[in-house]
Amino acid sequence: QVQLVESGGGLVQAGGSLTLSCAASGRSGRTFSSYAMGWFRQAPGKEREFVAAISLSAGRTNYADSVKGRFTISINNAKNTVYLQLNSLKPEDTAVYYCAARLLATAQTPAGYPYWGQGTQVTVSS
C-alpha cells in the first residue's frame, strides 16, 4: 500500500503561483523510484483530468497541453515527495488537485493509478 498526502493549495489571484507537494509513504516493499507519480485535477461538475506526470526512475515528464509552460512537476527522492509548481495561474485552473501513484511508467488516465491522495483545493480569483 502507498499513502499520499497533498498540501500547498490555497487561494491566489490570477497570474500568481503556488507549489503543491505530495508526500508518499507506505510499506509496499518497493522503493519510491519504482513508481510514477501523476497530478490530476477536478473542477466542480467536471471529470477528473490529467495535469502532469513524472517517471521517478527515468525522470521523464509529460504535461497536459493546457498547463505546458506554466506548470512544472519535480521530485525529491530523498524526501519521497513530488511537487507541482503552478505559475501564471488562471481562473480556469481552479480545481481540487490530486496526487496519484502507479508502478513504473506514467499514465494520463485516472484509471491507470491505484493510489490517490485526498486532494488539495486550488482557487484562482480573477
Structural class of the helix and strand makeup? mainly beta
Mean pLDDT across all amino acids:
93
Strand proportion, as a percent range, falls in over 45%
pLDDT < 50 stretches: none
Topology as a string of helices (H) and strands (E): EEEEEEEEEEE
Features:
globular, mainly beta, 126 residues, seven-stranded mixed beta sheet
Q: How would you briefly describe this protein structure?
A:
By secondary structure, the protein is an all-beta fold.
What can you tell me about this protein's structure?
- The protein has 126 residues and is mainly β.
- The chain is 0% helix and 52% strand.
- It is built from no helices and 11 strands.
- The strands form 2 sheets. Strands 2, 4, 5, 6, 9, 10 and 11 form a 7-stranded mixed beta sheet that branches. A 4-stranded antiparallel beta sheet has the order 1-3-8-7, with no helix packed on it.
- β5 and β6 form a beta hairpin.
Q: How would the blueprint of this fold be written?
A:
Elements: E1 2-7, E2 10-13, E3 18-26, E4 35-42, E5 49-55, E6 61-63, E7 71-76, E8 81-86, E9 95-103, E10 115-116, E11 120-125
